[in-house]
Amino acid sequence: MNLATDRANLWHPYASAVKPPPVLDAATADGAWIVLDDGTRLIDGISSWWCAAYGHACPTVVQAIREQAAKLPHVMFAGLTHEPAIRLAERLNLVMPRGLNRYFYADSGSIAVECAMKMAIQYQAATGHPGRRRIAVLKGGYHGDTVGAMSVSDPGGMHRIFRGLLPEQFFADRPSCRFDAPWDEASFAPMESLLEEHAGEIAAVIAEPVFQGANAMWFYHPEYLRKLREACDRHGVLLIFDEIATGFGRTGRTFASDYAGVLPDIMTVGKALTAGSVSLAVAAASDRVAEPIDVFLHGPTFMANPIACAAAAASVELFLSRDWGAETARIERRLKTALAPCRACPNVKDVRVLGAVGVLEVERIPDPETTRKIALETGVWLRPYDRFVYTMPPFITDDAGIDRIAEAMRALADAV
Ligand SMILES: *Cc1c(COP(=O)(O)O)cnc(C)c1O
Q1: Averaged over 380-392, what is the pLDDT?
Q2: Is the pTM of this model over 0.85?
Q3: Catalytic residue positions?
Q4: What are 384-389's contacts with CB under 8 Å, separation 24+?
Q5: What is the mean pLDDT of the segment spanning 232-252?
């Protein structure tokens, strides 16, 4: 592999093009493993940004991609439809919450979030509320990197730099009540007062249910979502759940919102939707949202790409065929035991586990070079960032693999 070309020409995520951080060269991946060019095998402790939920290169998904690529790799979706798009809708009907069955296929998670927000705004305009054009959000949220999605993500550093480009939204303090603590009514107060004050300008609330991922790695109380549903109904505001990270079993339920038994008006799914193979996401709306929208104003070139739809249909079948409930419960138990001793590490402020997600909140993370060294020493691929050393392993990772991941997390926490 010519890494000089990589350094000379390629931009990596959240990195400098001219002073790039170190990279490892992946040659193949199968099951829970990433295999480097020199044959080194690393457990993918974060499922390649949480998408390879059942491991890499699942044979049925690869086969579906191969067959579809040979038959019909792509065709435009305006005025035409195709079998993989329909097959995927039939599979989604088996897993999506009943009542959220109007599917818009989007190219990525961020685009699905853009679509969800556009649906909300078109719905409000069509039902006589053209003034409801903004979105209310929770601080600590993450919904993607496109402009609209950034505008509803935590107002950290990025918002200052992109001021002027980003539409201004309404932010409420994040839910303070922990997932497993007794419910604290005060935790909903910031959102309640925000809605009371500004409902007339708000089209929808968007939230990652129960688990705030990328920007907070925080599990909050499901009761918050029941309060949120009630408040949205009271104020004529739509509710969007972003289940892109949490969908398909990651937190131990099919959807994290199942912990609350709350149905949103629009839900986004992505990431594990194609079992980590190709990019596809869905914005799923209820009939109530879809009916008043005369013409939905979105239609990307590669909408409903047949290869992506075939991959997603095969992935949903895989999800349905697995005992993922037992797998995530086993991983949760194992992570809780294996990470408990980390509470004693001086650099560790908090240890949190739910389903197949394990988080060490730390004072400081190691530098990229140390992280790379620890990956090679422990044989575990992890990517600490901000104040988090975390794992979201493939569900197929066995107990020995989980223990090894926990050891690598501890090594990363201890390395500063
Ligand atoms: C990853 C993520 C997104 C963005 O998805 P992309 O496919 O990276 O655009 C949106 N919302 C949540 C909750 C995510 O975790």
Answers
A1: 97
A2: yes
A3: 14, 142, 242, 271
A4: 384/412, 386/215, 387/349, 387/361, 387/362, 387/363, 388/217, 388/359, 388/360, 388/361, 388/362, 389/359, 389/360, 389/362, 389/365, 389/413
A5: 98
